UniProtKB/TrEMBL annotation:
Protein name in the entry: 23S rRNA pseudouridine1911/1915/1917 synthase
Residue span(s) of domain Pseudouridine synthase RsuA/RluA-like: 15-162
A single GO molecular function term of this UniProt record: pseudouridine synthase activity
Domain of life: Bacteria
Entries under InterPro entries matching the protein: PsdUridine_synth_cat_dom_sf, PsdUridine_synth_RsuA/RluA, RluA_PseudoU_synthase
Assigned protein family: Belongs to the pseudouridine synthase RluA family.
Gene3D superfamilies assigned to the protein according to its UniProt record, in alphabetical order: Pseudouridine synthase
Any one Gene Ontology BP term: enzyme-directed rRNA pseudouridine synthesis
Length: 250
C-alpha cells in the first residue's frame, strides 16, 4: 500500500480506484473555495484522469471511490443515484444516546443558513434517511455506526444535530469542540496537561466502508478504510479504558 500525506490506496484497477482520504481534504472542487487542496487533483498526479462519482465532507476521513473512464463513471454514478451503494460510517459523539438503533428521516436543505450548513426543512428539504446504531459508550463519548441511505451534504452531522447529538470536534454542528485528551478520560494520568497533545482534535467522522458492484465485472465488492492515525489512537485508548471497540461489534 503506497502511503502519501493525503491518502492511501485501498484498491486500484483499470476502471476504478478506491482511496482512504485524510481529514481536511476536499474530494472534488468546491464552489466556495475553488483553490482549496483536493484529493482528486493530488491522486491524478499519480493515476491520471479521475472522475468523481460521490463526495464525503472535507473534514471527514475515509473511503472514496473514483472512476477511471467515462463508462465506469456512468455505471458508478447510476448505483449512487439508485441508492444501491451501501455506505457505513463510524463516528465518536459527545454524550450517551438513549437508544440502541434509530432511523432519522428528517428532510434536509443543503446550504440552509448563513454558515452554509445543512438544515432541517420539512417544506423545501430533500428526502434524507440515516440509520444509526449505538456501538458502545465510552465515558463521556459514544461510538456510533451510521448508514446513510441518501447522499445529502453533511447528512450524518445534520441528522445527529436534529436528535440532540454532536460529533466530537465538529466545527459546524457542535457547540462543543473540545478535543479528546487522555488526561480527561484516564483516571490515573501523570503527564503534564500544559504540554499534552490531544488524541483527536478534528471531526471524528470516518467513512469506514463502501459496498457496490464493479462497473465492468458486476461483482459485488466491499472496500474498507482503516482509521487514520489520530482516530486509531483514540480507538485504542478508549477500548483499553472502557472495553468498547468499534471493530469488535456483535
Amino acid at each position: 500500500m503506497k502511503i502519501t500525506p493525503n491518502y492511501t490506496v485501498i484498491y486500484n484497477d483499470d476502471d476504478i480506484i478506491v482511496l482512504n482520504k485524510r481529514s481536511g481534504l476536499l474530494v472534488a472542487q468546491d464552489r466556495y473555495d475553488p483553490d482549496a487542496p483536493r484529493l482528486d487533483s493530488e491522486a491524478e498526479k499519480e493515476f491520471g484522469r479521475l472522475y468523481a462519482v460521490h463526495r464525503i465532507d472535507k473534514d471527514t476521513s475515509g473511503c472514496v471511490i473514483y472512476a477511471k473512464n467515462a463508462d465506469s463513471h456512468r455505471a458508478l454514478s447510476m448505483q449512487f443515484e439508485n441508492r444501491t451503494v451501501e455506505k457505513i460510517y463510524h463516528c465518536l459523539v459527545n454524550g450517551r444516546p438513549l437508544w440502541q438503533t434509530k432511523t432519522v428521516d428528517s428532510k434536509l436543505l443543503p446550504d440552509g443558513d448563513f454558515r452554509h450548513r445543512t438544515t432541517i426543512n420539512s417544506r423545501f428539504g430533500k428526502t434524507s434517511i440515516t440509520d444509526f446504531k449505538l456501538i458502545g459508550i465510552c465515558g463521556p463519548y459514544s461510538w456510533l455506526e451510521a448508514r446513510p441511505k441518501t447522499g445529502r451534504t453533511h447528512q450524518i452531522r445534520a441528522h445527529l444535530q436534529s436528535i440532540g447529538l454532536s460529533i466530537v470536534c465538529d466545527p459546524l454542528y457542535s457547540g462543543n469542540q473540545k478535543p479528546v485528551r487522555l488526561s480527561d478520560i484516564k483516571k490515573r494520568w501523570n503527564g503534564d496537561t500544559e504540554t499534552e497533545r490531544p488524541l483527536l482534535s478534528r471531526l471524528a467522522l470516518h467513512a469506514y466502508s463502501l459496498s457496490l458492484e464493479h462497473p465492468k465485472t458486476g461483482e459485488r465488492m466491499t472496500f474498507t478504510a482503516p482509521y487514520q492515525k489520530d482516530m486509531e489512537a483514540t480507538r485504542k485508548q478508549l477500548a483499553s479504558i472502557f472495553g468498547v471497540d468499534p471493530f469488535n461489534q456483535k
